[in-house]
Amino acid sequence: MKTQRKLNICFTYLPVLVLVLCSCTSGAPTPIATVLSASTTVPTLSPTLTLTLIPIPSATSVPTKGLSPEVLLKQINEADSMYKSGEFKKALGIYTELLTYGPDPRLYALRAETFDRLGDFNAAIADYLAAVDLGEKNDLVLNNLCWDMGITGQAEKALPYCEEAVKADPSSSKRDSRGVVYAQLGKFPEATADFQAVVDDLKGTTDPGLKAIATERQEWISSLQSKVNPITPEVLAKLRADTSAVAVAATPVPGPNAISRSSVQNAATKLGFKFGEVDGSGNEETLTGNLVKGSCNAVIQLVGPETDLTSVLLQATGCSDKDQAGFTTWLIMILVPEKYAMDALTYASSMDIYNLIEGQVGTTGEVEIGNVIYETKRSADSKQTLEITAHFKE
């Protein structure tokens, strides 16, 4: 399945990075330390843990030559708005113009999605490959590359990207794309398992479109079990004709402030969290990750569908005050929309959080930033467990 667009603008990283990008000149990005004021100190984790903000690759920084950051962001937002309203050719024109200022992987990925909507899959593949070559190897780009190569009969070329996408995020939408490729390569048992994941994920859905997808995948499974490849030239033509191909997502279309599960999972993985399989289906999905370093034991739960999380729970037990402060700031900063990044940073650095973490056990702190409500509490027992819950409003 083609992955749906999840962004209002092209930047998918921590909100603080938007502050960095907005402070860019025609040269290299302004260092984070310059952007943040001296009074907004971000606590770091102790040497037993590593807290790393996702960097902006210096060789592929957002092109700003000849454009002010304000104009750049305005044009990206305008293109995204046109994309969402179906004016794909106009959006394509803006992305193409922005890329004349220099190569940027995120802009290539967004233009590729626009080519997809226009049915120009060869152009989309070229842009996805350019994004990957420039370092944009997130699961969304890899999955879309897998899908486009798969439906254009380039199964052998597609397979490595399919495998990488599923490794990064084994959700049913990624496995569906890989299943199409597996079937064309004669890997019938593997394709059957991937399509079965889609059928299981859509079990109980009342959406007519999703029910049709589940029925079709079940028919494909029956053919595969009879040693017949269901992905015929006619089926591939049908898949190419559906230039909405994002329409086959297994979860509802996300809202403008939606947070994807994979984006939080990837950030948590960089901290050292190890994740298992997704439990449940639909809006009741839960993905749990664990991190153990010495006496510090942290658990994070991502609740809700892949495209639109409903809540995130992070619990840290036996961790130092510094580690707990680091976890708290990290979670707050990674979830809020970009425009609330400074408010989030200010709150994370405020005395409310630190009074709570540094001794006021058995108490609860709550704050609303943007569309996220954070509740932070610390137990009064000897382990002094810190629990942070983030709920997303509609």
Strand content: 5-15%
- What is the terminal-to-terminal distance? 26 Å
The beta-strand count equals: 7
Report the biggest beta sheet as strand number plus sense, adding barrel if it closes: 7 strands, antiparallel
Please give the share of residues in helix: 40-55%
- What is the name of the CATH superfamily of the largest domain? Tetratricopeptide repeat domain
- Are there runs of 5+ residues with pLDDT below 50, and where? 6-64, 245-254
Number of domains as seen in the coordinates: 2
- Under CATH at level 1, the class of the largest domain stands as Mainly Alpha
Using only C-alpha atoms, the radius of gyration works out to 22 Å
Overall body shape: globular
Average pLDDT, to the nearest integer? 74
- Taking strands numbered 1, 2, ... along the chain, how are they ordered across the largest sheet? 1-2-3-4-7-6-5
CATH fold node name of the largest domain: Serine Threonine Protein Phosphatase 5, Tetratricopeptide repeat
CATH architecture of the largest domain: Alpha Horseshoe
Order of helices and strands: HHHHHHHHHHHHHEEEEHHHEEE
Helix segment count? 16
- Content-based structural category: alpha+beta
